[in-house]
Amino acid sequence: MECGQEIRRKFQEVSLRLQEECVPALRVRLEQEGQEAERRWACVERDVSEGLQSAAVELQLWRRYDAALSSNLQEVQEAERRYGPLLISITSGLRTPEMLQTQRKLTQESMDELRRLQEGTSLVREAADQLARRLDPSSAAVHSDAQHLSGRVTYLLELLSLKAQEIEVGPPTAHSHRGGLKVRGARSMF
Fold first, then answer.
1. In the chain, domain spans
2. Which of 74, 90, 139, 169 could be a cystine partner for 163, CB 3.0 to 4.6 Å?
3. What CATH number does the domain located at 2-187 have?
């Protein structure tokens, strides 16, 4: 911008000198061309200023989205590391009444924490929506990460819910398993 202002100032100086030295008809024409150049320059400055303001808003939205995503992703990864052993211990066959009570309590606490974490993913979705509206409303790129994160939390919640049922009624037998999520697939996640 400063460079452009310097060029503009020099243009005006040269234009004034030429006007003083030229015939009146040429002087009027130079004044008109100078005014037109100033109008165009003002439009360019305005467009650049608006572009910079827009970019600053988009950068702020991106930072908000990135911070929310990073924070929630870290929490989800930590939850996956914490609940993997819990899911495996619930699956083990030898359980005393004390172990069942402990597992029931741990499972409920874990599910409560995951529900809180799932609510936290709404901040990521909200930030993704704002960013997508600003950049490109049809863009699915920023929504993909938010949906994936929410899906991971939902998956853990469903696994723990199945485990909570298993604690209450006992492990499923080959005949009593009615579809749902397969526990073996859950182990590969951890």
1. 2-187
2. 90
3. 1.20.58.60
